[in-house]
Amino acid sequence: MLSENRVNPSADRVLVTGGRGFLGRHVMAALANRGYSNAVTFGSAEHDLTHETQIVRMLEAIRPSAIVHLAAVVGGIGANRKFPGTYFYKNLVMGVQLMERARLAGVKRFLSVGTICSYPKFTPVPFREEDLWIGYPEETNAPYGLAKKMLLVQSQAYRQEFGYDAVNVMLVNLYGPGDNFDPETSHVIPALIRKCLEAAERGEREVEIWGTGRATREFLYVEDAAEAIVSALEKLEDSDPVNLGSGSEISIRELAEKIVTLTGFPGRLSWDPEKPDGQPRRALDTSRAARLLGWQAGTGLEDGLAKTIAWYREQRAHASGAATGRR
Fold first, then answer.
1. Edge-to-edge strands of the sheet including 216-221?
2. Beta pairing class for 66-69 and 14-17
């Protein structure tokens, strides 16, 4: 039986925090495609979720019926190692305060979007939701992963004590059009795409990559993730976590080789084993999502990479043309 708090596309106002970010823009589009005419978002300059008073003002102004909490401070291995305290504090305080104030304000449904980084470092593969508590997360991103994991604890505790309708999903690494290509904070796919394209333009014969390439990851195309999140908002019935992933594991070395081919970079890859690999393996069991949401990823990795590379090429060409026009 569906929850009495299930959102109504034509009547309920859905607030998406982080709705102007990479994933958020796609979630807003997915909501619009499903008929959510009252979906809203805002930027951090309007309401800073690390400050409780601003959360209160935001909720009073927007009065949402449901919240999809995507807002997060995120980055790759380098950024996680450089800013562990920032990543822990800001991600924790945003989520904890927002859920509490949403409950007090009468927001009837709250969806926390968590991360695969919350899993223990040596979780058996494929990762199953019941293994979330068998160990400590991989050290390089543990502060971020634990901060997001606390929202799962909060959801379960609030449902138990207050009957609050809070639900949770956990995402693997995302990629796709609109991704973050900043070399300081990007994740592996946009970082590799940018490195290969820039090296090819400069005529370089080598691209250096952190680690050994042996670590494995699972990647989910952002449009597939957005569809899954909207389905979770509509269908999930309890606070237990649900994995969202593609169900396909690939080594970083194989991934890099695919990107080299798709970008047309003619040189070689140079691996730096002195740099960290991160978690040894990451791959999800997505059977719970299939069962509860009727969802599975529809975009294969090669197709998704090709779309992402094409989008980034177009952005670079547009930026180059705009710069030339200004001269």
1. 173-175, 216-221, 249-251
2. parallel
Query: What pTM was computed for the model?
Result: 0.92
How many of the other CB atoms lie within 10 Å of CB of 136? 11
Task: List the structure tokens of 210.
Answer: 């952190």
**Distance (Å, rounded) from C-alpha 63 to C-alpha 57?**
10
Please tell me the distance from the alpha carbon of residue 284 to that of residue 79, in angstroms, as a whole number. 24
Are the beta carbons of 27 and 230 closer than 8 angstroms?
A: yes
How many CB atoms are located within 10 Å of the residue 149 CB? Answer: 24
Per DSSP bridges, beta strands 249-251 and 216-221 are antiparallel
What is the rounded average pLDDT for all residues in the chain?
93
Q: What is the pLDDT of residues 1-45, one digit of tens each?
A: 344 457 899 899 999 999 999 999 999 999 999 999 999 999 888
| Catalytically annotated residue among 36, 87, 119, 144 | 144
Active site residue 144: yes
Among 27, 44, 45, smallest CA distance to 36 is for 27
Assign 71 to helix, strand or coil.
coil
Helices (H), the chain: 22-33, 52-62, 77-82, 84-105, 142-162, 188-202, 222-235, 252-263, 287-293, 301-326
Q: Is the dihedral of CA 272, 273, 275, 280 positive or negative?
A: positive
Rounded-to-integer distance, Cα 276 and Cα 263, Å: 25
Angle, CA 272 vertex, CA 269 and CA 273 arms, to 5°: 130
pLDDT in tens, 279-305: 888 899 999 999 999 999 999 999 999
Residue 159 main-chain phi, psi, to 5 deg: -65, -40
Computed on alpha carbons and rounded to an integer, the radius of gyration of the chain in Å comes to 20
